[in-house]
Amino acid sequence: MNKNKKIFIIISIFSILVLSCVLTNPNKNEYINWSKEEIQSQSSNILEKGVIGFLGEKIISNTTTTRNYIIFSIYKTEIEGEELTTLGIFKNFIPINKEKDKNKSIIKGAI
Asked: Which UniProt keywords apply (predicted)?
């Protein structure tokens, strides 16, 4: 295989990867839905689950900032002393940093 063909293949693979990232970069609404489901699944209190089910989207939306870098997004949600930073890429969310006040839960702080 000659050098030009190798370069073309590498550039093509890289371009496909970048295009895939751009097309599958999740938006804020997808993050809000994911976050709401995560909070509900981690809660053992029926009242908390109900509040998050009813008001969760609004609470999460109002306390979340988004930085969109085209190929991925960073979401930062801060509620009552608890901060969660999440990477959104390929229609998936990966929590990358969670700072928490040990005496509060993200749900208890919201209600």
From this structure: Lipoprotein
